[in-house]
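Slide 14.
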Amino acid sequence: MSLLTDLIEKLQWLPGIGRKSAQRLAFYLQKMDKTKVRELTEAILRARMQLKECSLCHNLSEQDPCEICRNQSRDTERICVVEQPSDVMVIEKTSEYRGLYHVLHGVISPIDDVSPEDLRIDTLVERIQSSTITEVVIATNPTTEGDVTALYIAKLLKPLGVKVTRIARGLPMGSDLDLADTTTLTRALEGRREI
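Slide 15: predicted structure.
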């Protein structure tokens, strides 16, 4: 296998990158300044080796606890539950939500063999039981799996006396949070409702 073919194959490991995109990237990397290629490689390695999961919210961070969990100006009575760390970044861009987060690292999906035990739901329940949380905002993606996960979490949390809300349907069904514009996401957060 040639070096170029190997690079194209490896680039296809990235989500959303098919053969044609991988080829374009491979040829682009060959034209890039070698210093920039080295910087890119080092940035990927540093991020992969130094980022870790926050022990409180499960977001990715260089420190534990993460910057959001350590920030004393955050609303500590509200937790927003999201599927992935990238969803935290998207919601933070709106500057509308000032509470804490809890990252599940996936959704319930029997087809993909993902059960509630595979997610960070148990630590969410523990956080709520040992804190002064009054509202849990569920911001899973508006997909069948996201809805199933939201309903499962709501059923678990209702007996704990906490208000459970779901972001409004300002997002189209089947889309991902990281594809939404900030205005749509802001409206979805403002229009959340109790489950």
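Speaker note: The chain has two domains: 3-50, 72-194.
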